[in-house]
Amino acid sequence: IWHNLVPQGIGLVEVPNFDMMLRQRLFSEFTTDHLLYFTTETLATTLQVCGFEVLDSRVVWHDYILSAIVRKRTALDASEFARYPEKLKAQLNAYLAGFAPGEVAVWGAGHQAFAVLALAELGGKIRYVVDSAPFKQNRFTPATHLPIVPPQTLETDPVAAVIVMAAGYSDAVAATLRDRYPKVQVALLRDYGLQTLPANA
Fold it and tell me: How far apart are CA 63 and CA 192, in angstroms?
């Protein structure tokens, strides 16, 4: 039905009323003509999952039929969502190209950082991942196998730059880095891509 309607097209869907069949114990209503049986709730859910907006739903013809008027929803366009990982990978690799191998660290050992590190194939290009949570330290990132270290490692094993991937904590982490490590370049992973902060004066 969805494929036979133009965008925003209106359709009528009618099926046997399984609510009534249950209520009246009408086992004789089961026939080979119908592969599936729907209640009011399961019909609405099925139609929504299949790309329709349910405009009206009612019981008709002596309670035997569930009748729904539907409108075809426009399909979700996720093309930019699908292209974004490659764009981000290119941005990260262009940024890393400005440094010697192993001169950049990442701050943030959360699931989003792990996904970005793996999808951008940064395992051999990052020296370590910093995180202030003790339960994450002295472990390794999944897929990329980078060591997760405490913040003081930036003093004992310094790097030239840190990419902050700390989600809601990113701005606070960047402020801490710029205050305590003024010679370290800082970049932040934002929802729109990589933001490079200007060097400290």
Answer: 53
